[in-house]
Amino acid sequence: MPVDYLRGFTSAARTDAANRRLGLALGNLAFVLSAASSIFAFLAGAASSAILINWGRRRGTQSVYAMPLVLEGLLLLCFGVLGANLEQHRLLFVPATVTLLCYVMGLQNAMITKISKAEIRTTHVTGLVTDLGIEIGKGLYWNRGVPSTEAAYVGADMRRLGLLASLLGMFLAGGLAGAIAFKQVGFIATLPLAALLLVLAAVPVADDLLRYPRRAR
Hints:
By secondary structure, the chain is mostly helical. The protein has eight helices and two strands, in the order H-H-H-H-E-E-H-H-H-H. It has one domain.
């Protein structure tokens, strides 16, 4: 409705869509461009992950999911070493550090989505909490007169409930640890994480490097 559309500009309850329209209406082009740039970087990261994974699948590599992990580790390594310098530069209308991190988030999220067959999305906390709430709702549902063996029975998937709860807990713990570490040591706080990612990816990548020379002979 046109009235609802106009009301959204000054509504006390703010939404991303209303804020974007307000940014345009007020001529705040910098705000609009910075938001668009962050989204573009995230999309580019997700697309890069899909390209690497599909390339690996077509060639039957052992490192089909390790390659995005290697790229993520290298980018986090760059962030840790060059973060203070990158912060002084702008890329796609936002600080280069923001562009880099958005790209890394898109890269990781697409990789986890692919490897878990869309069951897990590591950077979408709202979706994670929503799925958790759905399972809790199923668990609290009153199945009046419906045996648990019936198709109409509504019950929580306890395995999925445990998985979602643990993911949310780890996300909160990681966010807290990251904030404390960044406050204490700055950008280099990402170096141990980058090293861990590279170690995790090293074995399948090494397997492929050792296998392909034999194929060539």
